[in-house]
Specification:
324 residues, 65% helix, single chain
């Protein structure tokens, strides 16, 4: 009988670990894990320090608003009052020389009116530029974006004289001569801001994400463009509307330059930022510093409350509109 054939020996595909090599691999993995944990700790510590650095000034303003004069001017500075002086807020509100409540009323009227107007104009323009097809659509959108490149200072004098020469208002005749026009009215604080290029851009980008099939289905059912806009599009763009409303309201509430120019000849129209500047002059002595800080706290409170209540719309609106 023939001998069985000897099969060649196939080398093992699996490499044997040398003695001690498994321990080195585990040590490297543990080292990588420690570095990852250390990196995360450093990142969180950095974020915490930056957050504290940004929060401390606000905390000191809030604390100093209920301090006495001696505590506000103490060196080193004090962070917590020994006895809160809540009467500082009442003293500011009762001061006949500085009508803070009137400033709040003016700011609320102007900020609310501008916000509603911007929501209307931006949503209508955004819908037209995103979903309607007409000649020159892209050129109009490009021109709208280009207006964001110019600083606001370029438009102050032209807008001022346009309002001053507005016909048949403020004692003006048909040619816009003889009076103050629309300067000494709420229109001077509201009309220049009823259209926002940034708002048009935001709403257009958001509405681009709405499927055209929804609009086509509504149009097949007989809905007009206005009906499609109000019943189909608007319910889908609530996050963008909320985001735009937050930015517009807070921006108008804190705007200083234009209200200062307009209300120079109309003190009854002064808004909160201009009123704070006036209070800084009236309370120029250090003795009244705590009262000025109390007024500052009341001035920033509406913006802070709006932000804390609606901050989730910031992220949601930006993500859904395509911002990174």
């Amino acid at each position: 009988m023939s001998e069985p054939l000897a099969l060649p020996r196939v080398p093992a595909m699996r490499k044997e670990l040398e003695p001690g090599e498994g321990g080195k691999s585990a040590a490297r993995q543990r080292g990588r894990r420690r570095r990852r944990v250390l990196g995360k700790l450093l990142l969180h510590a950095s974020v915490l320090l930056i957050g504290l650095a940004m929060f401390l000034p606000f905390f000191w303003i809030l604390s100093a608003s209920v301090m006495t004069y001696e505590e506000v001017t103490a060196i080193p500075p004090r962070w917590v009052p020994s006895t809160p002086q809540w009467g500082n807020y009442g003293a500011v509100l009762r001061d006949p020389n500085v009508p803070l409540l009137k400033y709040f009323k003016n700011s609320f009227i102007v900020s609310t009116a501008v916000t509603l107007a911007v929501l209307l104009t931006s949503s209508l323009a955004g819908y037209a530029l995103a979903k309607l097809k007409f000649p020159g659509r892209d050129a109009i959108f490009t021109f709208t974006l280009s207006t964001m490149m110019f600083p606001v200072f370029l438009f102050l004098i032209p807008v001022y004289y346009i309002l001053k020469r507005f016909p048949l208002l403020g004692g003006n005749d048909v040619l816009g001569m003889g009076g103050t026009g629309a300067l000494q009215s709420y229109a001077a604080l509201i009309v220049p801001f009823v259209v926002s290029a940034w708002g048009v851009f935001l709403m257009r980008q958001f509405m681009m994400t709405i499927p055209d099939e929804l609009i086509d289905a509504a149009r097949i059912d007989g809905a007009s463009d206005l009906g499609i806009f109000s019943m189909v599009v608007m319910p889908l763009v609530k996050p963008a509307l909320a985001t735009l409303a937050i930015f517009t309201f807070i921006g108008q509430w804190n705007y200083f330059l234009w209200p200062m120019i307009v209300t120079t000849s109309a003190p009854h129209l002064m808004t909160v930022p201009v009123g704070l500047r006036l209070m800084g002059t009236a309370y120029s002595t250090a003795v009244n510093m705590n009262k000025l800080l109390a007024a500052t706290v009341m001035a920033i409170a509406p913006s802070v409350c709006v932000f804390l209540a609606l901050q989730r719309y910031y992220v949601k609106g930006f993500v859904l509109s395509g911002f990174k």
